[in-house]
Amino acid sequence: MPDAAPPPAPGATLPPSGRDAVGVTPEWATRDLPPETRDPAAVDRLAALLRAHPGTLVLTGAGMSTDSGIPDYRGRDGTRRVMPMQHGEFCASTENRQKYWARSFVGWQRFSRAEPNAGHRAVAALQEAGALGAVITQNVDGLHQAAGSPGVTDLHGTLADVVCLTCGDRSDRELLQARMVQANPGFEEQVRGAAPDGSRVSSQIRPDGDVVLPDAAVAGFRLPLCLVCGADTLKPDVVFFGGSVPRERVEACFALTDAAPALLVLGSSLAVMSGLRFVRHAARRNIPVMAVTRGPTRGDQHMTLRVDAPLAPTLEQLLRTEDAA
What are phi and psi of 238, to 5 degrees? Predict the structure, then answer.
């Protein structure tokens, strides 16, 4: 009998910056993976496990979208490269919200043009074949849905939606973008030059859709207001670091894990507890837990099988194996 699962927590809180600083390599990321994780036969072993557990639940992270031009927060060595705006920071002041929306306004031009890559398409095809089941994604880019995947839970929300923290009104991000274009004519052209570190602004896109901008440029940006209540508390409907995943969404993901024959992690270092908790939950159920991602993860001790290989080619190989079966 597997161990009894604990009741789900009210929400998954993402760590504030004090616990996960830029330039810091966590201890788990310094571990060496065994050679068999890089053995070409590891993909064959993964394919065999998936055949034995059709409908495997999928948990994806930022590495899923890097081939679509959206970088992750960490390097392969697990070191955090950038820190997004914190939930408390966003809520604290109009100036902070101005900074967020100025950066997001510029970043959205590139972020919204991202398209599903071969890995997203392979996941959708493996779902259609019955090898994979529902998808829980930690990403906020909507690329699984764009690739045709059914049954996707956006654990951390989606950048395509906007919510007012004052009155609760919900709106579309594209419509908000059009409003910001009207309110800030020429803003993008003014800031398209070099970032403070000398790199081009257009190269600074982040997983949450914003970019690096100098403070002087941000000061001239006109912040969008809610069309219903007039407050300046519009926020993308995503869970910022330091915020909490809604309780009902966490419970739904635990239910998916309870019903799953196995769990496959794709492109995630599992550094954030909101994703790691489902790996731990699956391990307590004594179901197979597998992962395809580059470098160590925070949940490696719970893994039945690890594959340290490029994501999209590995998923395409799995799809070929499934088609040949």
Answer: -130, 160
| Rg of the chain in Å (alpha carbons) | 20
Residue with tokens 């004090």, as numbered in its chain: 18
Please provide residue 209's backbone torsions phi and psi, each rounded to the nearest 5 degrees.
90, 0
Q: Which of 87, 144, 156, 302 is catalytic?
A: 156
Q: Is the pLDDT of residue 14 over 70?
A: no
Q: Are 260 and 55 in contact (CB under 8 A)?
A: yes
Kindly state the DSSP code that residue 4 receives in the 8-state scheme.
P
How many other CB atoms are found less than 10 A from the CB of residue 26?
Answer: 16
- Which of 31-35, 63-67, 287-291 has the lowest average pLDDT? 31-35
Match 């007012």 to its residue by tokens. Answer: 164
Provide the β-strand partners of residue 290.
264, 305
Could you report how far apart the first and last alpha carbons of the chain are, in Å?
32
Residue 36 to residue 167: CA distance in whole angstroms: 54
What b/e readout covers 288-297, taking b as 16+ CB neighbours within 10 angstroms?
bbbbbbbebb
Distance of CA 117 to the CA centre of its chain: 15
CB-based contact 239:134 (threshold 8 Å): no
AA identity, residue 263: L
The predicted-structure confidence for 110-160, as pLDDT tens digits, reads as follows 788 899 999 999 999 999 999 999 999 999 999 999 999 999 999 999 999
> In this structure, how many other beta carbons lie within 10 angstroms of the beta carbon of residue 25?
13
Nearest to 210 by CA among 140, 108, 113: 108
Q: At what angle do helices 94-111 and 173-183 cross, to 10 degrees?
A: 110
Sign for the pseudo-dihedral over CA of 74, 75, 80, 82:
negative
Closest-CA residue to 314 (of 61, 43, 106, 97): 43
Q: What is the pLDDT of residue 87?
A: 92
Query: Is residue 120 annotated as a catalytic residue, yes or no?
Result: no
52 contacts 259 by C-beta, under 8 angstroms: no
What is the distance between the alpha carbons of residues 158 and 68, in angstroms, rounded to a whole number? 16
